[in-house]
Amino acid sequence: MTPSIGLDFGTTNTVATLVGAAGQVEAVHFKHDEELFDAFRSVLCFSENEDDARKRTNIDAGPWAIDKFVELSGDCRFIQSFKTFAASPHFTDTLIYNRRLKFEDLLSGFLRQVRSHAGIDFPKRIVIGRPVTFAGAAPDEELARTRYEDSLRALGFEDIHHVYEPVAAAYFFAQRLKADATILVADFGGGTSDFSVVKFVVGPSGLDYKPLAHTGVGVAGDAFDYRIVDQVVAQALGKGSEFMSWGKALPIPNTYYKKFSRWHELSMMRYSRDYRELQELARSSLDPDRIRTFLAFLDADAGYPMYRAVSAAKMQLSHADEGVFSLQVAGVDIERTIKRSEFESWIAPELAEIDACVG
Question: How far apart are CA 16 and CA 110, in angstroms?
């Protein structure tokens, strides 16, 4: 058997598995702050430092990228969920410290960090998962495939194979089958939800499979996270409240809360015109305590702790009738019990899209 690596590059996390020449399978592990893990966060952080009177651009990924972002208090370029741009013809490149980087540069740079932190050499053969339907309004699947392959070849991979992510999951499950079966597989990720119907046949030569149908939609966990942020955090920070202007009560503009969809962008608000405007609004607000809490939230750079609290609440809601969102940082104390029925009403639009996809 040819040594191979299986790679699941996800919107939120990335995992990898090595297959040896004798067929042995082993997950790729990482170690951060003395903790072993195998789900590598799909994030990047670019920062600059001066070395020998020259500015150099550093790149970090995974939890090391988050560490760098927190250390520099946002004085860097932090990128998350960049898989969502893989199939977008509108995304050509991004400017980072006077250098234009294409999607291929981001992915190859990210995977170099994955390989470095794994501390092992990767084989030349790779099987990489891909969503059934890439994220975006009009995804170009061939463009995404080309970008994936260019990124992988830049790392030295020579034998590249693509597999639908739900099919890979189905094959893992089917190893335990004793008889033929047709299976519906659901793969809920951070950016996409993918579904496959796969027929497995158990024969004398082993397990054979035939994909019968595929579908997917660019809606998944990230959208669910944002609903909690919008309904719990944003409300606690003044969304929906009013301020006085020229004798009239007007709603606080929603533009201040749109950045909550990406937690790292909140760090930049502390140094923006938005922050100064919020300071002015605190003086004329009909609910000034909530606006002052918003300012304290930005001062505490609480974006990342907020999303960790969101993830914890969502995990509770996955197996219980209610969960608790709890965020305590300097100047901010938000605790709210969320009932599952309440959460399901918030994500009803996304559930409808997923239902239409498989219905």
Answer: 13
The set of residues, in sequence order, having a beta carbon less than 8 Å from that of 207 and lying 6+ positions away, is: 171, 174, 175, 177, 200, 201
Q: Where do the structural domains in the chain lie, given as residue ranges?
A: 4-164, 178-217, 221-351
Tokens 């040594």, residue? Answer: 3
Tell whether the model's pLDDT for residue 73 goes beyond 80. Answer: no
Residue whose structure tokens are 């170690």: 31
247: left (phi over 0), alpha (psi -120 to 50) or beta: left
Q: What are phi and psi of 12, to 5 degrees?
A: -105, -45
Residue-averaged pLDDT of the chain: 90
What letter does residue 124 receive in the DSSP assignment? S
Contact 169, 185 (CB under 8 A): yes
Is the Cβ–Cβ distance between 204 and 225 less than 8 Å?
no
pLDDT in tens, 132-191: 888 877 889 999 999 999 999 999 999 999 988 877 778 778 888 889 999 888 888 888
Q: For domain 4-164, give the CATH number.
A: 3.30.420.40
Long-range contacts, stretch 276-284, CB < 8 angstroms, 24+ apart:
281/243, 281/252, 284/243, 284/244, 284/245
Q: Which residues contact 199 (CB under 8 A, 6 or more apart)?
A: 180, 181, 182, 183, 209, 210, 212
Residues 6+ apart with CB under 8 A from 5: 16, 17, 18, 19, 28, 122, 123, 125, 126, 127
Q: Where are the beta strands (DSSP E) in the chain?
A: 4-9, 13-19, 25-27, 30-32, 35-37, 40-41, 43-51, 54-61, 77-80, 94-96, 99-101, 125-130, 159-164, 181-188, 193-203, 206-217, 242-245, 248-251, 322-329, 332-339
